[in-house]
Please model this.
Amino acid sequence: MRKYTAEICEEDFGKEIELYGWVHEIRDLGGLVFLVLRDREGFAQITLPKKVVDRELFKKARKLRRESVIKVFGQVKEEKKAPNGFEIIPREIEILNVSDAPLPLEVTEKVPAELDTRLDNRFMDLRKPKIQAIFRVRHAVVQALREFFDRHGFIEVQTPKIVSTATEGGTELFPISYFEREAFLNQSPQLYKQTLMAAGFEKVLEIGPIFRAEEHNTVRHLNEAISVDIEVSFVDHEGVMRYLEEAVREVYEKVNERCERYLGWIGVDLEVPDTPFERLSYDDAVEIARKKGEDVNWGEDLSTSALKLIAEDYGGYYFIVDWPTESKPFYAMPYESDPEISKTFDLMKGWIEIASGAQRIHKYDLLVKRMRDQGLSPENFGFYLETFRYGMPPHAGWGMGLDRLMMAILGLQNIREAVLFPRDRHRLVP
Ligand code: AMO
Model:
């Protein structure tokens, strides 16, 4: 019977099973050979006492190279001294593929490697249980988000990634050639998710790639990231902030329920954050940074150094709300009572921005005015602007960086750790 190493239990003692995996380690003690087989769920000790197993099999096992792919057929035996309390006495070992030597990267974590070397040899790096566990948790995070939004009546959509305009500012665009025209990789599904509000979907979710030609190489920026986007009609910014905080809390709960083993491999103890998250106004955030000696110009985005000072007082999840209208994109709704300030928010974890969102402008004239204020040409937004002329409902939404959320959940120091094959200023391969 085919089993994963982690499935083997007392009931299997005395029975014959089949395992598939990689040769993690070999210890040759002369009259006794120990193999450690690694599969995606863990490890199993394969024990070959010279006097017990077939002679040819014993010779074959001795010559195995680490990281070769094998199939083992053998009997499970209780063995208190083995790491999991059992060992396998093999009847047959089939070599499915031999690994070359030396290895480009160590899979046993005995020799630490630089992140760059690890990413260059990512397929080997991902064989490490501790690294693979990050992606098992990531799977659970995405699943939890989908479940949450499905339960709340959201429709999951996929919008184009090859587009004709910028949404989040023109400087971070990746141009591509699209037959005889220039096109761009989409920075955000922003214009499309708003268009779907005009189309009457009312609540949409999209989980997809966003592309930003960020020049800076930081621990929290990628050139291709995955964004979780929602858009909701007939609610204001507070309405979508509630979805955001409840979704994040539920992600923590589900990861705790479903990923205990993987969290253990990574060495993380997850504490479910309490909701509602604290709301800190932009003005108060500026005040905190200024009191600590930071020079902040009202109206500008908050610098990393300012955010680090604020995070000394706010370590967990919190919102920074009511940003200056000029610091946010053209589609953010200004307060009627004070148009200098907008119905906008960023979700923060410590000093890192995890998500940002807003109530949107749904009135055509105001939207055109805001585009002009920001130096944009309304003519470039034809298809989008049209939707505001024929019954656009009031709406709000946000975009959350999935890779940043993973950093926050697992306490990863570099966003690249959360991504299988990261794209940054210098990395296009693998
Ligand atoms: P914003 O530009 O703030 O907003 O992006 C939303 C979230 O996406 C993540 N993110 C990134 N992650 C990694 N590398 C990057 N280069 C990168 N850029 C962005 C961040 C960020 O908070 N349209 C709006 C959202 C909305 O209002 O609905 C938008 O794109 O976690």
Residues 235 and 395 are 6 Å apart (CA to CA). The chain has a mean pLDDT of 96.
